[in-house]
Amino acid sequence: MEYVLEVNDLATYFFMHDYIIRAVDGVDFTLAKGETLGIVGESGCGKSITSMSLMRLIPDPPGKIVDGEVNLKGTDLVKLPEEKMRGFRGNEISMIFQEPMTSLNPVYTIGFQISEVLRLHRDIEKREALSEAARLLKMVGMSDPDQRVHEYPFQLSGGLRQRAMIAIAMACEPSVMIADEPTTALDVTIQAQILRLMGELKDAKDTSIAFITHDLAVIAGFTDRVMVMYAGVAVEDAPVKEVFKNPLHPYTQGLLGSVPVLGVGKLNEDGTRRLLQAIPGTLPDARRFPRGCRFAPRCPHAMKRCWEAEPNMVEVAPGHKVRCYLHHEEVRERKMRNLGAAGRRIAKLQEHDRKKRESKRAREERKESKRDGVS
């Protein structure tokens, strides 16, 4: 299989004054030509930071890609200097951002913002670029494109702004397109139109898409493969049908169990209404992940081993990978990241704080045991 994009051990940290946030902590995945990969997980699990890392758009400081590779057709984007990265960004790899109203520049027309990409990467004249921008707006289903190129973002509806974002992303016919929740703020009708449009463009140009969303119904109908993320790591990666038919990780099972069901499926065998299976608790603090499995504090199947060491991501069936001791015994090796001098200073402060907390907890436990002995 021909892979257009290969991501290996990608790690993106944010170095604050006295702590480090491990937003993405060793993510691996591949994207084949013409394939659509769905990336799911609750808010704060690292989906958008992963996509921003692929585009090299992490604000530095405080963010930094501390480790890993992002190989796009054999070129490692992480190691490219910024000047060369600009030749790839918007050309070979592009992105549809989460909220078009805040992503589009309000003081420039839609036509200018599309033609800017064309003039940068294709080296064409202004008039020709504007004509091409109108053609792209027509391609994404926008009515009266010759007029729309002269309009500003505030003059367009939410659906039209999203179409303009897709036109910008598809302007140079990139090999990889990242869509970060492109249908979140849209109503169901417009959402269906945008998904249909993206599907048609993918088929016409054979573009590979990484599609980030919370909507599992969209994942089921639009993607070929699914990667489930939790607390900065991937916990399951499998073909979309396999994920819905046979989810292996307890977190994936929890996500699917929390989806409302209509019809007879919402009733138990005795006729009573079936309650949603909410996942208890919240995401762990990215400054202090658990020593073992990151889902252990919320997992109904957590064992002693889950608290002691983090499981590795292992292929347990053809094309189906999972990070869970219920399905294999392989432990993930802790890798020392190159944090730099400032990072090592912050990490040392964090370790000092951790020891203080553990010492305080031990003193409280000793006091509690003494009180129990007296009573």
Structural write-up:
With 375 residues, the chain is α/β, with parallel strands linked by helices. Helix content is 38%, strand content 21%. It has helices at 47-54, 82-88, 100-103, 110-122, 126-139, 145-148, 158-170, 188-205, 216-222, 240-245, 250-257, 304-308, 340-374; strands spanning 3-15, 20-32, 36-40, 63-72, 75-76, 93-96, 176-180, 208-212, 225-230, 233-239, 314-317, 320-322. Helix 4 packs across helix 5. The relative contact order is 0.13. The mean pLDDT is 85.
Question: What is the element layout, followed by pairings?
Answer:
Elements: E1 3-15, E2 20-32, E3 36-40, H1 47-54, E4 63-72, E5 75-76, H2 82-88, E6 93-96, H3 100-103, H4 110-122, H5 126-139, H6 145-148, H7 158-170, E7 176-180, H8 188-205, E8 208-212, H9 216-222, E9 225-230, E10 233-239, H10 240-245, H11 250-257, H12 304-308, E11 314-317, E12 320-322, H13 340-374
Parallel strand pairs: 3-8, 3-9, 6-7, 7-8
Antiparallel strand pairs: 1-2, 1-4, 4-5, 9-10, 10-12, 11-12
Q: Describe the biggest sheet? A: 8 strands, mixed
| Physical arrangement of strands within the biggest beta sheet | 6-7-8-3-9-10-12-11
Helix count, per DSSP?
A: 13
* Ends apart, CA distance between termini: 69 Å
Structural class: alpha/beta
Helix content: 25-40%
Provide the β-strand percentage band: 15-25%
Give the SSE string.
EEEHEEHEHHHHHEHEHEEHHHEEH
Rg value: 23 Å
Q: Per the principal axes of the C-alpha atoms, what is the gross shape? A: globular
Low-confidence stretches: none
